[in-house]
Design a protein that fits this description.
alpha/beta; 391 residues; Rossmann fold; 8 strands; eight-stranded mixed sheet
Length: 391
Amino acid sequence: MPKIITLFNHKGGVGKTTVAHNLGVSLTKQGKNVLLIDADPQMNLTSAFIGLADSVEYAETNESKWLNIRGEYANLDQYLEDYSTKNIKNNPIINTKLYEHCLWEDREENKQNSVFENNIDRGILKLLCGSVNFAFENKLNVIISNKDVYKDSTIYSIEEGIRAIGKDFDYILIDTSPSANSILNGILVMMSDYFISPVFPNFFSLQALQNLNIVLENWTTKLSTFKQNPNEKGLSFRPKFLGLIINMAKRFEDSEGKKVTIYAERWRKKLNDVLDKFYIDMYETKRIVSKPDFKKIFSDKNPFIIQEICDFTGQIRNISELAGCPTVDLNQNIINKAVTEFNINKNKISEEKERDMAKIDISNKNSHYHKAFTEARESYNYIAKCIAENL
């Protein structure tokens, strides 16, 4: 049975999608098979995974790239609707075709160009696409507000359906929306084995962390009717908070990486204070791994900071999005190819962005691009290795 890890934070714009994409790829480098699920109506994970770089490709008219993909591959909204209404295992009417990692379609050429590291026996990475018009959320709200809610099997079927489509994978990573009011988010968290909260190093993220326990308690109250019964029908209700991944962590002030900024020092102290109280609140409800267990999983880390991901610059993020390639798989060949391709179609990017992209050189060990890129990749590889060996 696959381990389900949901990425959730009710503070938006903290890098949940970036973590899901890069961690998914990094887990495949550990030989694991991974299913990514895009549960955010903004569909950023779907866009990044498939490589939908602009509004033309993303449109739902004129035979756009997305329109063709949507017609062929399963999306979460339609899959859950079909599974919950038909609820027949292996029903051929239900579309379960998943989108495989787009950069692996020409593996031999990629290997020749050193796009991926040699001698790595990768696992499989696939995506259950998202949906802009997530009508299934409305259905869930109606069910929850119904007095005879316990008679409806729709919510029961969500965990069953997701575990069914992910049964051949080692891990299922779910990218959620930042909504604390979303019933679907509550279900996805409550059916998970673990959940991780990506954050930015700012005080808004601290505030969100302080309120996270309240959000979970609200979901617990609303969904208590659907808690798994002795016959194993219902939601697992066993999620454990695994920890924080701090994105955009500009950790050092000087070029040698020795002097920590005053702001970073102050924020880290405040974070530790918040985490101490958070641990007490969450431990009482059994919604968090213990501190000893955390250290067994992430051996050299302090609870509950899984990793601080170095800010790998806006230019590298732009290349990653435009090339449809996660940061951990970028190399100079992909960057050069992307710059050349988008120079031909200048309408896709601004001249300023074009100039910035042309300067990126991650092959030069003395460049700040190389340092930022290398640290980011090593961070994700570390997280993936710990998860693959211990969860």
